[in-house]
TrEMBL record:
This is NUP160 C-terminal TPR domain-containing protein. It comes from the Eukaryota. It holds the Pfam family TPR_Nup160_C. One of its GO terms (biological process) is nucleocytoplasmic transport. It comes from Zea mays. GO terms for cellular component: nuclear pore. Residues 22-296 form the NUP160 C-terminal TPR domain. PANTHER family: NUCLEAR PORE COMPLEX PROTEIN NUP160 (PTHR21286:SF0).
């Protein structure tokens, strides 16, 4: 009987060699990531002691987003995937903010002699244009991947918006991001109140309040209150259904209190006064509409009971 390093032929026939495909896939992805980085950085060396998160950070900094997201989907499961997606999108969102701050600093031109000053302005203008293009690329990247993964993790728009507002207190959220809060899964605007999926108008409203964006918060609330009041005749019956419409009334109270506190502290008194008047008018109209709808529902119920009594 022929022998080998693994035993006799009869013993080999009884051996079962198991290959874990999942482990092979993970090793392949890591090898591919390291190879892609090595083409960008000849000195790159990833050791086994480093965490997968560290590798992902390097990939994101080098704009290798596809392989970074592939690692997230392959190495984590369920809730852990969402945590890692939160982390990745926060980093990408911060890159958008860093370019914006760089653009601000690039506008500060030191005083130089006239001949050198002209050259400096031309050079500075070209740098600003380059940074603007880079910033535009970051925004496009953020929009592309957010649209791709928000169905997997519906709260991602909230994470991105909060990161932007926290990182840059003066930043204006891009229109496409705001629309993600205003649209439902089918892509239609949420028109019945401000509730929806995790990234709904109410979530955006709370973010605006949390980060002192009182004007944006007020305008957003007024927009939906007016949309609620101006329902088409065919939609009025739906509006009058119990619990058909919901607004974040507790958050509205917080906004009102914050505006009052700012007025008492002497900060932006005129603006706060205008916002409070706008908010008060919209809320009064809304509450009056709710009262009318409630009375209509009660009267219709009473009429229905009266008809039943007559028929009996």
């Amino acid at each position: 009987m022929e022998n080998s390093a693994f035993g006799t032929n009869s013993e080999l026939s009884r051996l079962q060699f198991c290959v874990d495909i999942e482990i092979l896939e993970k090793e392949y992805i890591l090898t591919e990531a390291q190879y892609m980085l090595s083409t960008l950085k000849s000195s790159f060396d990833f050791s086994e002691s480093q965490s997968i998160e560290s590798l992902m950070d390097i990939l994101i900094n080098e704009k290798l987003y596809d392989i970074a997201f592939t690692i997230v989907l392959k190495f984590w499961k369920e809730s852990e995937i969402k945590k890692q997606l939160d982390r990745v999108f926060s980093v990408i969102a911060q890159q958008c903010c860093s370019n914006r701050s760089d653009n601000k600093s690039s506008k500060q031109v030191p005083l130089l002699p006239s001949s050198e000053n002209d050259a400096w302005e031309i050079n500075n203008r070209s740098i600003a244009v380059t940074q603007q293009l880079q910033g535009s690329n970051h925004w496009e990247t953020l929009e592309l991947y957010l649209d791709k993964y928000k169905d997997l993790h519906p709260r991602l728009p909230v994470i991105v918006a909060e990161t932007l507002l926290y990182t840059d207190p003066e930043i204006e959220l891009p229109l496409w991001l705001v629309q993600m809060f205003k649209a439902n899964k089918a892509g239609n605007k949420i028109s019945w109140g401000m509730s929806g999926k995790e990234a709904d108008p109410a979530a955006l409203f709370r973010l605006y309040i949390n980060y002192g964006r009182h004007a944006e918060a007020t305008n957003l609330l007024v927009e939906y209150l007016e949309s609620f009041a101006s329902s088409r005749p065919v939609d009025v019956l739906h509006r009058k259904k119990m619990s058909a419409v919901w607004f974040p009334y507790t958050a509205v109270e917080r906004l009102w209190c914050q505006l009052g506190e700012m007025q008492r502290a002497g900060h932006s008194v005129d603006q706060c006064d205008r916002l409070k008047k706008l908010l008060h008018g919209a809320l009064m109209s809304h509450l009056q509409q709710v009262v009318v709808d409630s009375d209509d529902v009660l009267s219709s119920v009473g009429d229905g009971q009266g008809m039943e009594d007559q028929s009996s």
